[in-house]
Amino acid sequence: MSSAMSQTLSGQVRTVRGYAALERNGPITTWEFEQREPRPEDVVFDVLFCGVCHSDLHTIGAWGQEFPLVPGHEMVGRVTAVGDQVTNVRPGDIVAVSTIIDSCGECEPCRRQMEVYCEAGPTMTYDGIDRVDGSRTRGGYADSLVAHQRFVFRVPESLDLAGAAPLLCAGITTWSPLRHWRIGPASTIGVVGIGGLGHLGVKFAHALGAHVVAFTTSPRKRDTILALGADEVVVTTDREQVAAQAGRLDFILDTVSTTYPMGPIVDTLSLDGTLCSLGIPDRFDLHPGTLAGKRRSIASSATGGTRDIHEMLEFCAQHDITADVEIISPDQINEALERLSRNDVRYRFVIDMTQR
Questions:
Q1: CATH number of the domain at 170-300, out of 3.60.130.10, 1.25.40.10, 1.10.8.60, 3.40.50.720?
Q2: What residues have CB less than 8 Å from 89, skipping those under 6 apart?
Q3: Dihedrals φ, ψ of 39, to 5°?
Q4: pLDDT tens readout for residues 232-251
Q5: Within a 13 Å sphere around the CA of 5, how many CA atoms are in the beta-carbon half?
Q6: C-alpha span between 41 and 38 (Å, rounded)
Q7: Which of 91, 102, 305, 312 could in theory staple to 123 by disulfide, Cβ–Cβ 3.0 to 4.6 A?
């Protein structure tokens, strides 16, 4: 452990370089901030890779609470120091952090290790409020991060680190509902929107043994989507292709974040089928009668708790699953965010934080 880090753990605040939006809808720029003092159960790690999530765009804009704002909630790093009560990792370990870094630890969801549904509200990895000292949380667009050991996860050695980073948001957001709805070899499922979330949804569902039907607006993506593990590709602009799927699907992962006419997609569900909306658009464009005809349901899901994340990472190691990524340097963040706003990425931007 370096002397500088020893001083940090003994109570001194450390200045960290981050990449922040200084104002709402502002560009990302270099910004230094004081990182909160680590506590006995905290892990300090250098960020190696951090994914660029679509929610980063939203938070820099309408969702943001306080500026300057350091985004980033899907990251992989190397441990540099641990508190004296940390038992699960040690300096030098490769670890990951997801979308939350604390919760009350006492309510029923927390006791079930589904902390993302904490009844007192989970502490978000960035732009949240620390439960102990009231400071603003800063995310993975930074040189380092501090988090409670419960929310720090070992990364299996076999996984590519850049490809592993998006698993902590895009991955767990699709993994958790697939497990909750018990998707497996007897399932026929649809994945709508083959982007950052959708491409991992296809990989997971395929590895779980399901028959996977991918829905995309782009005929050009057909071969690449089949390569991800889809059994069929349906181009949603072709009404006949969509109609041919009527009543076939047990479950749909819908990753689309904009409002669109959902009726034809919901019509592909069988009796008692469920569409899980992960993109969470502003509203649903759907007549209730489309649900009533076959007792269909619309549901949603947040990311996942610590139990889900441990399980997902083990599954990814067993099946060699990581995200397909485009690696960028910190000075390309603004360009990447602009491209992301146009859905011009296949399938996830990941910042190489070592290129500073």
A1: 3.40.50.720
A2: 43, 79, 82, 95, 149, 152, 154
A3: -115, 175
A4: 999 999 999 999 999 999 99
A5: 16
A6: 8
A7: 102
